[in-house]
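Long-time lurker. I teach an intro course on protein structure, and each term I like to show students one example going from raw sequence to a predicted 3D structure in token notation. This year I'd like something fresh instead of my usual example. Would anyone be willing to generate the tokens for the chain below so I can use it in lecture? Attribution to the forum is fine with me.
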Amino acid sequence: MADSASSSSKPEDTTATEQATASGATVKDEGSTSKKEEAEGIQCEGAIGGAIGVGRKKAGADSDEEDGDAGYEDEDDDDDGPYNDEEDKEGFMKMLQNFLMTKLHIGGAEDAPKVLDEVSVDGIVKYILSGQCKNIITMAGAGISTSAGIPDFRTPGSGLYSNLEKYNLPCPEAIFDIEYFKNNPKPFFVLAKELYPGSFNPTPSHWFIRLLHDKGLLLRHYTQNVDTLEHVAGLPADKVVEAHGTFRTSHCLECRKEYSQEWMKEEIFKDNIPTCPECSGVVKPDIVFFRESLPPRFFMLTQVDFLKCDLLIILGTSLTVQPFASLIDNVPSTCPRLLVNREKAGSLDPMMALLQGMGGGGGLALDSPRNTRDVALLGDCDEGCSKLAELLGWKEDLQSLLTKK
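-- Reply from a regular --
Happy to contribute to a lecture. Here you go:
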């Protein structure tokens, strides 16, 4: 699922391919789409994303788990501070400079001061407790919500895409494709009833993120999920960036009239296709489908937040969906990055890491011989977060939050 208070549309004079490419969706070569897919206006091959994620898969990357989340509370732009064109431009240029230096490998690992005493989980813990770490950003995917009973998307047998045969789709991703939705919205709303926010409870991973906020260490939480569990766990709306959308609001696809979460939920649980009383258009939750743009707030805050970040914690995501996945490269070159996941993700190819012999280069340098900042805590996200809390001396604090739920 995706994040946004409203769905963005492309200029009318752009082609469908240009629209898809602009929003990050993968498009098949001309002539490779089946007649059935053409009739429904979708290209299935390569259409990958989070729970409803716009995105382009990284070349050669194996899809694992991604998803989308949403929020309940209103977001007040004033909470994020004033922004103007000059500040946005300056922030973007700094972010671009940092990204290009990493990609082009300008400057060696030996040139950058080493923040961690040791490149390990213990080193991360010591750094957090040192008082030097004050602006943590967390990035999350479906892996932090699976223990709540919400399926991830690609796990064979149990993943969401493996259980959509009953909808008679041209491909599993079609249920989250905006063109397919416009032609046949029923499958999405049937699925939405099964997975509707409010039916699940936050996991230990969500409560750990809340604990970071309570400790005054969380700068922002970026999520691909649309299950709203961060909000249920009590994270303030201004601390959450829902990259792939929200169920909190909905809009008519025709007249753009806004509808509340309560209105949408009532329609979905009546087994209706939500229809606008004003113009009879279909009303869609403000989650980002394939071939839709991510919300402006995502792009605005990434330009500012990641320059300030002094520790990036990546939780339960395969880091295959763009542009979310590339955010890991937008932190300063000295910023430690901790991956809490069942398997390594977002890593440089081992051969490329060896050839580059650097701690940067466009991805996590987990296998680089000169890695100075990237650490992996492999295993279940909830277990990883519980272990971190214990090592930090926060075990009782986390347990207190878990009891409150």
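Some talking points for your students: Strands lie at 136-140, 218-223, 240-242, 245-252, 258-260, 283-287, 311-315, 337-341, 374-378. DSSP finds 13 helices and nine strands in the chain.
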